Automatic annotation (TrEMBL):
<feature type="transmembrane region" description="Helical">
    <location>
        <begin position="34"/>
        <end position="51"/>
    </location>
</feature>
<dbReference type="GO" id="GO:0008137">
    <property type="term" value="F:NADH dehydrogenase (ubiquinone) activity"/>
</dbReference>
<feature type="transmembrane region" description="Helical">
    <location>
        <begin position="91"/>
        <end position="112"/>
    </location>
</feature>
<keyword id="KW-0520">NAD</keyword>
<keyword id="KW-0812">Transmembrane</keyword>
<feature type="transmembrane region" description="Helical">
    <location>
        <begin position="139"/>
        <end position="161"/>
    </location>
</feature>
<dbReference type="Pfam" id="PF00499">
    <property type="entry name" value="Oxidored_q3"/>
</dbReference>
<comment type="function">
    <text>NDH-1 shuttles electrons from NADH, via FMN and iron-sulfur (Fe-S) centers, to quinones in the respiratory chain. Couples the redox reaction to proton translocation (for every two electrons transferred, four hydrogen ions are translocated across the cytoplasmic membrane), and thus conserves the redox energy in a proton gradient.</text>
</comment>
<keyword id="KW-0874">Quinone</keyword>
<keyword id="KW-1133">Transmembrane helix</keyword>
<comment type="similarity">
    <text>Belongs to the complex I subunit 6 family.</text>
</comment>
<feature type="transmembrane region" description="Helical">
    <location>
        <begin position="57"/>
        <end position="79"/>
    </location>
</feature>
<dbReference type="GO" id="GO:0048038">
    <property type="term" value="F:quinone binding"/>
</dbReference>
<keyword id="KW-0472">Membrane</keyword>
<dbReference type="InterPro" id="IPR001457">
    <property type="entry name" value="NADH_UbQ/plastoQ_OxRdtase_su6"/>
</dbReference>
<dbReference type="InterPro" id="IPR042106">
    <property type="entry name" value="Nuo/plastoQ_OxRdtase_6_NuoJ"/>
</dbReference>
<keyword id="KW-1003">Cell membrane</keyword>
Amino acid sequence: MEWNGEFIAFFVLSVLAIGGAVFMINFTRVVHMALALACTFLSIAGIYVTLHAEFLAMVQVLIYTGAVTILMLFGIMLTSRQGQEKEGNPWREAFSFIGVAAFFGVLMWAIYQTPFSGETGPVDSYTVAQLGETVFKKYVIPFEVTSVLLLVALVGAIILAKKESKS
């Protein structure tokens, strides 16, 4: 294993991504959870940069870190919480940890048992312009349906917030 700057950056960004995900699960305030999720998304964008996928990194920043996190924050701020938070059951937490550890073990076993070929596709023939043409010509309907779905979710959060404030 060669220790160079790219490996160290990948390691640091991986730790930040995993740490952000763990903090998102363990925080109790929803806004802090959303910020931890944004940290995870930004770290994943950095990992894309270390893998020389700059376009994916920019899409990650624009769509996930920007749009999805802001949409979640709007949804959180526009709806009020009902009831009080319940205290965690220690048995449930122990069984959850065992379940997650078992899932991680099975996942790692499956990854290490899967034979991956060393061949890669021709990457020089694919460009960002071709990707843009494919997305906006061939997949324009799913792209627009996704944007309408996000807009409906935001409008629904606003309607729920208005109904709760009138009651």
